[in-house]
Amino acid sequence: MNRFIGFVKKEFLHIFRDYRTMLILFGMPIAQILIFGYVVSNEITDVNIGVYDKSKDNVTHEITNKITSSGFFILHENLNSDKEIEEAFKRGIVREVIVFEDNFAEKLEREGTAGIQIIADASDANTANIVSNYTKAIINSYVKNELFAKGFPYEIVPEVRMLYNNSLKGVYMFVPGTMALILMLVSAMMTSISIAREKEMGTMEVLLVSPLKPLPIVIGKVIPYMVLSFINAVVIIALSYFVFDMPIMGNLAFLLLETLLFIFMALSMGILISTVSNSQMVAMFISMFALMLPTMLLSGFIFPIANMPKILQWLSTIMPAKYFIIIVKNIMIKGSGIGIVWKETLIIAGMTLFFLVMSIKKFKVRLE
Amino acid sequence: MSEFVVEVKDLKKSYEKVEAVKGVSFSVPKGELFGLIGPDGAGKTSIFRILTTLIFPTEGKVMLLNTDAVTGYRKIRNNIGYMPQRFSLYQDLSVEENLAFFARIFGTTIEENYNLIKDIYIQIEPFKDRLAGKLSGGMKQKLALCCALIHSPDILILDEPTTGVDAVSRKEFWEMLIRLKEKGITILVSTPYMDEANLCDRVALIQNGEIMAIDKPEKVISSFGRKLWAVKSNSIYQLIKDLRAFEFIDTVFPFGEYLHITTKDKDLDILEMKSVLSKKNHSDIEIKEIEANIEDCFMNLMNVN
After folding, report:
1. Is CATH 2.40.37.10 the classification given to domain B4-220?
2. How far apart are CA A43 and CA A35, in angstroms?
3. How do residues B82-134 score in pLDDT, each as one tens digit?
4. Contact assignment for A203 to B89 by CB distance below 8 Å
5. Which residues make up the CATH 3.40.1710.10 domain(s) of chain A?
6. Closest Cβ opposite residue A366 in set B54, B84, B89
């Protein structure tokens, strides 16, 4: 055990000595999440909207004024029928239509509640989401400032409808996706490089001649990166929660547990890569091409899997990142528990076992 | 129980295309400083890697400490110290960290075996906080030796420890080896430097994967059995050509500023030789009879084979 602790300590020293490794480990996740985050959550200005006011009373006028004077929206046209909504969207100028229900002010006064429907063009999912959120925020502030303040306990219920892309694929995709990508990169690439470095520098020769067995060497290599990857995952989740208001509907502990499982999978994959590569260069290229690109392209991170050709869809089923993204999305956005994601969890666990067994089998106790 | 701690019998090693070791046998008794002398590519590293259980022998039997090197590799790895040809310590760890790490993975501490490495470590101790990668060549070798010794191994296997090290450090290094030998450690060392052979108890001269001779250095030299002359003139290149043209001259090898020559059967008349050479436009001619050294023997054996 003492030997093993010594080995782990040495690994930590390697990491802390090498400022480039540190930079990759901690700089990259933050940079990536911020870049992805800000690309997705662009500020919106001068969005063309349409208003279908079935009620045409003073309250609906006031709300419409509030929205158009906010600076984010421009009233492009007033609509007069449901049919016109569809046509307006098809012309492609209007990105959002606000529909006030019949007898809006009357209902509000009599029943204390009235409905507004916000229809957004979700073919551009990100913009649709932002636009509808802005609209909701303006309506809510109206209710709070104008109605509540004057002593009316009224409630306006905005109902958001996403046209063309109901489930809003693409939005919030960047957090699970980036998480998968970074954990994959840090865990798999870094471990494979660090084992390959021992081979390249000739230190493996000395390690092998020592009484250390393969398993402690492998586990010892993995533990520091496991710790660091986990810290990374926590940083990403915190950033997405505090900076980008990504919800965490599900159990945080469960989310972290699933993350740990994925990290473990990526690490065992890294070990397997290192057993087949003799230099840091080779390890890096295999990690890049075998892990990073497929993770980005085939896991559903950037391109929806449903839109892929059949053959790529099959390929995507062997991408561990795909399952992790599904799990994270479910936990964070839908608040699902193990009852929903047990299948994906099991698949990742199975992959972990496979890579681990393979790499211990392939780990050579000799130089040839 | 055998009296030998290392026994190698008919060892062969082939890589995909080349046969690196072609049937080598030798034995090393406990406490001996055994040298494997030969040029690059002679098969020294292959033999040492088989001894250290890092690669499999293709054929033959290798026993260390009465344990088979193939099946008993775990036991052997606990009891040998190995210093590979290339500097293989962690360059990004300090001197002390390297040493502490190797002590730890062998389940010991620096303090426990300090007396063994003291003589050597004391020389690098002033730099113990320096990163190993920033040490000079000689210092690196000393550190590597310390790391190989830290678990007090029964056998120390050093693959070309003095290659690329300056003359002073080389001398110091060999002095250390001799002191370690006196402490009862069996040492196997390989080197391409023939002059280091004299410092070993016994040497094996190896060339192209075969041992040409194996004996005490002085015995190897006395087995030379011929007279040897050193010749020098103002034009060494011309001299080589002229000497090789003579019928009665057997071998001509350059050694520093001299040429070492042997004759086929008859003795060499130094005066007559001088006059013959001066007729061929050589000046500053110097001819003297000399004692053979290991390198002469090596060249001679190479020629015979």
Report:
1. no
2. 14
3. 999 888 889 999 999 999 999 998 888 889 888 888 888 998 899 989 999 99
4. yes
5. 47-163
6. B54
Using the predicted structure, report yes or no on whether residue B216 has a pLDDT greater than 80. yes
Closest residue in A to B89 (Cα–Cα): A203
Domain boundaries, chain B: 4-220, 228-304
Q: What is the pLDDT of residue A171?
A: 46
∠ Cα A264 A268 A272 (to 5°):
165
User: What is the overall mean pLDDT for chain A?
Assistant: 82
Residue A230 CB partners (closer than 8 Å, separation 6+): A256, A259, A260, A263
Place of tokens 């999912």: A125
CATH of domain A47-163: 3.40.1710.10
| Contact check, Cβ <8 Å, A366/B52 | no
Q: How far apart are CA A219 and CA A351, in angstroms?
A: 17
- Is B258 strand, coil or helix? strand
Q: Do A211 and B82 touch (CB under 8 A)?
A: no
Strands (E), A1-72: 47-53
Which strands sit side by side in the sheet containing B67-68, from one edge to the other?
B19-29, B4-14, B59-64, B67-68
Q: Which of A44-48, A345-349, B56-60, B181-185 has the lowest mean pLDDT?
A: A44-48
Please give the pLDDT value at position A304. Answer: 67
Closest Cβ opposite residue B84 in set A6, A202, A210: A202
Least confident window among A15-29, A257-271, B12-26, B193-207 = A15-29
Closest partner residue to B84 (CB to CB) among A6, A205, A365 is A205
Nearest-Cα distance to chain B for A339, in Å, is 45
CA triple B298-B304-B305, angle to 5 deg:
90
Q: Chain A to chain B, count of Cβ pairs less than 8 Å apart?
A: 80
Give the fold, CATH level 3, of B228-304. Answer: Alpha-Beta Plaits (3.30.70)
pLDDT band at A170 (very low <50, low <70, confident <90, very high): very low
ipTM: 0.78
